[in-house]
């Protein structure tokens, strides 16, 4: 048996795939986004989120305006759902680069050691925010992480 067939995906790839899969639960008509929060050693999933309307409301967007459809963002839902103490070190996996407000929510979550995304986003203000607070920000390409600094 060849070693190529036994190659295991990195934990970064596994959790990004999880974020991509959970994004399929999104009810947003424009963009499906998923977020997974794990411990630094990858042993525990602390929270998940996907974008959509608030619980109990219609499973649809409130408006058609890009960036203002009324849906809660996936990062926002993951932060709301995360009951881990601030002292727990965290890694954030998100299918798309977070917007500035979600970057601020992630920063306030506390003890975030890195943020990893796969797909770029039309607004890139989060790069500056993560840089300001020294949270490494990476784009995942296959199994390779690329540090994003601008």
Write the layout of secondary structure elements.
Blueprint: H1 11-22, E1 34-39, E2 45-50, H2 74-81, E3 90-96, H3 100-109, E4 112-119, H4 125-132, E5 137-141, E6 144-147
Parallel strand pairs: 3-4, 4-5
Antiparallel strand pairs: 1-2, 1-3, 5-6
Helix pairs in contact: 3-4
Kindly summarize this structure in a few lines.
By secondary structure, the chain is of the alpha/beta class.
Morphology call: globular
Mean pLDDT: 92
Give the H and E element order.
Answer: HEEHEHEHEE
Number of continuous helical runs = 4
Q: Biggest sheet, open or closed, and with what strands and sense?
A: 6 strands, mixed
What is the strand arrangement across the widest sheet? 2-1-3-4-5-6
Low-confidence stretches: none
What fraction, in percent, of the residue positions are helical? 25-40%
Output the structural class: alpha/beta
Radius of gyration: 15 Å
The tally of strands reads 6
Could you explain how this protein is built, in words?
The chain has 150 residues and is α/β, with parallel strands linked by helices. 25% of the residues lie in helices and 24% in strands. It has helices at 11-22, 74-81, 100-109, 125-132, and strands at 34-39, 45-50, 90-96, 112-119, 137-141, 144-147. A 6-stranded mixed β-sheet has the order 2-1-3-4-5-6. α3 (100-109) runs parallel beside α4 (125-132).
Give short descriptive properties of this protein:
6 strands; 4 helices; 25% helix; single chain; alpha/beta; globular; 150 residues; 24% strand
